[in-house]
């Protein structure tokens, strides 16, 4: 059985003070939920949020990282630093990083390896653009992203991977993929993982859907056999909507 995982990607929203207020509001609202809950605030909020979630069961993740442990990489943050402040997860290869910061599948691969090597659980994002979907390329695009992004991983710890299928056209647009369409692609991803890592490992890896998830569509998504959770952007910024999604 794969434990559902609902993660909130706060993107570039919330000062440390605003972050604490959101966590405070969330605490009581999600105390009963069965799913694993992860919040991914901006870097500067991480230390305060790690302290604020103590004893709540909420886990904390970052939104990006560099693959090196340390070095002359101005503006970057390393996996060692994230682990040291108490992060357990890190989002890797989000489409906004790919689109605006030119992150390649090769960079994603280095980051995934570095995250696992430092005990962080990567949430690896893949997904096609609208043009790619309309050209019938969804399967090929996602396959390339998964194969290149996850190539050469050591045997140990592969089951700690989380994947997020996020069609780019559904992110922040209010247009979500239908539950059936999301299930089709996510089932393909699981088959691909079985080909790469073996069926037993593939059956343990959790795969989320992301793209305009809201309280109104979470149940239908979670009812699909291969969808193990959601990566939530906009709706994770308010305690009311995120807690409803978390309790789906
Ligand atoms: C995201 O940022 O990963 C995302 C899915 O955003 P939204 O829920 O706002 O579409």
From TrEMBL:
Keyword match Isomerase: yes
Family: Belongs to the triosephosphate isomerase family.
UniProt source species: Formimonas warabiya
Family matches, as InterPro entries: Aldolase_TIM (IPR013785), TIM_sf (IPR035990), TrioseP_Isoase_bac/euk (IPR022896), Triosephosphate_isomerase (IPR000652), Triosephosphate_isomerase_AS (IPR020861)
Residues where substrate binds: 9-11, 172, 212, 233-234
Official protein name in the record: Triosephosphate isomerase
Catalytic residues, chain numbering: 94, 166
GO molecular function, one term: triose-phosphate isomerase activity
Catalytic activity: D-glyceraldehyde 3-phosphate = dihydroxyacetone phosphate
């Amino acid at each position: 059985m794969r434990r559902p995982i609902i993660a909130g990607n706060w993107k570039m929203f919330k000062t440390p003070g605003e972050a604490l207020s959101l966590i405070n509001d969330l605490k009581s609202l999600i105390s009963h939920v069965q799913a694993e809950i992860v919040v991914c605030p901006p870097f500067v909020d991480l230390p305060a949020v790690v302290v604020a979630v103590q004893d709540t069961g909420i886990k904390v993740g970052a939104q990006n990282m560099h693959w090196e442990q340390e070095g002359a990489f101005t503006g970057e943050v390393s996996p060692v630093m994230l682990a040291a402040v108490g992060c357990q997860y890190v989002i890797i290869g989000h489409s906004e990083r790919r689109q605006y910061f030119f992150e390649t599948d090769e960079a994603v691969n280095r980051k995934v390896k570095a995250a696992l090597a430092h005990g962080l659980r990567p949430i690896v994002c893949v997904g096609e653009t609208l043009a790619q979907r309309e050209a019938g390329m969804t399967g090929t695009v996602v396959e390339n992203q998964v194969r290149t992004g996850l190539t050469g991983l050591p045997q140990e710890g592969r089951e700690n991977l989380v994947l997020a299928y996020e069609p780019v056209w559904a992110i922040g647009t209010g247009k979500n993929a239908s539950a059936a369409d999301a299930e089709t692609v996510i089932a393909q991803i699981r088959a691909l993982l079985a080909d790469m890592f073996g069926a037993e490992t593939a059956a343990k890896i959790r795969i989320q859907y992301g793209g305009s998830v809201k309280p109104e569509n979470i149940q239908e998504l979670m009812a699909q056999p291969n969808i193990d959770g959601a990566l939530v952007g906009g709706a994770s910024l308010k305690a009311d909507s995120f807690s409803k999604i978390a309790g789906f």
